[in-house]
Specification:
Two copies of one chain form a homodimer.
Chain A (H helix, E strand, L loop, with lengths): L8 E7 L4 E9 L5 E10 L6 H19 L3 E6 L6 H20 L4 E5 H8 L7 H11 L9 H16 L5
Parallel strand pairs in A: 1-4, 4-5
Antiparallel strand pairs in A: 1-2, 2-3
Helix pairs in contact in A: 1-2, 3-5, 4-5
Chain lengths: 168, 168
Amino acid sequence: MRDTPPSERLILGIDPGTAVTGYGVVARRSDGRVRLVECGVIRTAAGEPLARRIRDVFEGIQSLMERHRPHAAAVEDVFQGKNVRSALTLGHARGAILLAISLHEVPLAEYTAPEVKKAVVGTGRATKDQVGFMVQQQLRLAEAPSPHDAADGVAVALCHSMMGSWPR
Amino acid sequence: MRDTPPSERLILGIDPGTAVTGYGVVARRSDGRVRLVECGVIRTAAGEPLARRIRDVFEGIQSLMERHRPHAAAVEDVFQGKNVRSALTLGHARGAILLAISLHEVPLAEYTAPEVKKAVVGTGRATKDQVGFMVQQQLRLAEAPSPHDAADGVAVALCHSMMGSWPR
């Protein structure tokens, strides 16, 4: 069961990675105010087989979906990569994330990193520190979420909360 | 329940793709003889969102795993791709496939396309027609599995059946 007031909308934001997937759950009130519900990272062990790591990411997202039952999910999209091999590997983790969201029938949005930065910081070329700082400011936190991946996940959720296009 | 004799080992072979995923289920007797149990393709609709297509692939593999309960699974690996974007997309589908196998706790093997061709045809640079022909010969089929993707899935299973390294 959700512990959020009925007027709040929960958004799960995810910054996918094979080693570290950052996430943030943000609640948005009908008046536009936002608060942080939870953020963190799902880490997978570099020494484990890829199938095991993908499963860890999938089960981590499954657990978040079941615990928070978000109204919407937003996942960072990736258009450029170092090389074909690393893009293929990242795709495995991202596929597991999209699958977990789809299996819970939660509406999905996708934003590129520059889109997220533009929405949260005002420029698509913001640094990780700038993203962390703006996440901290907008959610009135004592400090920026740590590690950066967690802040990035929160930024994706914040970005989506600003778009106003998600189902009400 | 399996309908295969206890002396047979079932191997699921998969050639992953976002649009078309080919598969083959091959039974291997302890004397080394192989027979084809089933082959086919999982198709996804090009107009659907990627998350939906990944889910279709995942559920297709889930269904195969539940129906055949294979002793081992082998999935084709991809080292080269046209570009980073297509590798990322293929990674999504392949991640869903590895996840379905992992969730069923089935031992997983991975072979590159040249490894599969080398095992089944004798050369890593075999054509699709040559792969289809050798699959037909080795499994004593009236004709080569169609489409090519199905034959490729069977070839992956055959390749793994020859390796002898899978658990007995």
